[in-house]
Specification:
The chain is mainly alpha-helical. It has helices spanning about 1-15, 20-30, 40-50, 55-60, 65-75, 80-90, 95-105, 115-125, 130-140.
Amino acid sequence: MNDERTTDLLNELNSMDDKPESFQAFMERHASAQTFHTLADYLNYYISQNPDLHIADVIKRSNTDKNYSYQIFNGRKKHPDKYKLIPLCIAMKMSVKETNRALFMAGQPALAPTETLDAALIICINHEYTEMIAVNEYLAVNGLQPL
């Protein structure tokens, strides 16, 4: 199946013209197929594709330690704790799928709907919470420890 996907991408590239806008359109259509070597590469690519996002604002909304968060973005912290990375993903407005990809890149388990905390976080992500203050309030109302 992976080979078919690669073959499809190659066929599309082989039939594409060399105009920059064609290449950019291709990259946008197939962003989810891109390979990233590090978590920092993935996060920084995500930010570059979302012009309304700025690292400083993401860190502020995530309510995480500034130095720790910058170490994640600059690649010094390659495998952050699951529940330290999730607030950044929420503040970046990532979907559950995108958050799970970031967790995978960090070597952490995906959000599990069978885990109470993860289930609550999935609900917050699906309802587009982007401020950890609001997420933590939701967790507290439901008898869970805030992140």
